Amino acid sequence: MRPGGQLRCRVEQESRDAHQVEANALREQLAQLEKSVEQEMALNVELQQRQTEQEKLLAQRDDVSSQLQEVSRANSRLLEQLTELGQEKDKLQQELEETRKAGHKRKAMLDRAGHRRGAGEVADYREELKRRAAAARGRRCWACRAR
C-alpha cells in the first residue's frame, strides 16, 4: 500500500474508533437516562400513594375532630345536668334537714304536753276504750239474739 493509503486507513480507523467511543458513551448516557426515568416514575408512584394515604389520614383526622367536638358538647350538657342535679339534691337535703328539725321540735312539744296531762288523761282514755269494747260486745250479742 501506498504511504498515503495507510494514512487514510489509519485516519478512517481512528475516526471509527472515535465514533465507537462516542457511541458507547451515548449508550451509557442513554442507559443512565432510562434508569433515571424509571426511578422518577417509581418515585412518582410512591408520591401518589403517599398523597392518597395523606388524604385518607386527613379525612380520618377531620372525622375524629368532628367526633371530639360532638363528645365535648355532650360532656358540657352532661356537666350542666349534673350541676343542676347536684343543686337540686342540695336543696332537697336542706329541706329534709329543716323538716327533721321541725319534727323533732313537734315531738318534744307533744312529749312535754303529754307529761303535763299526766296519768288522768291516760286513765280517761283507758276508760273510754273499755266502754267502747263493752258496747261492741253488746251489739254482737244483740245481733246474735236477732238471728
Task: Break the fold down into its secondary structure elements and pairings.
Layout (H helix, E strand, L loop, with lengths): L2 H144 L1
Brief overview, please?
The protein has 147 residues and is mainly α. It is 98% helix and 0% strand.
How would you explain this protein's 3D organization?
- By secondary structure, the protein is mainly alpha-helical.
- The chain has one domain (1-115).
- It is 98% helix and 0% strand.
- The protein is built from 1 helix and no strands.
- Inertia-based shape: rod-shaped
* Fraction of helical residues: over 70%
Query: How many DSSP E strands?
Result: 0
Are there runs of 5+ residues with pLDDT below 50, and where? none
Total domain count: 1
Task: Summarize this structure as a short list of keywords or feature phrases.
rod-shaped; mainly alpha; 147 residues; GRIPAP1
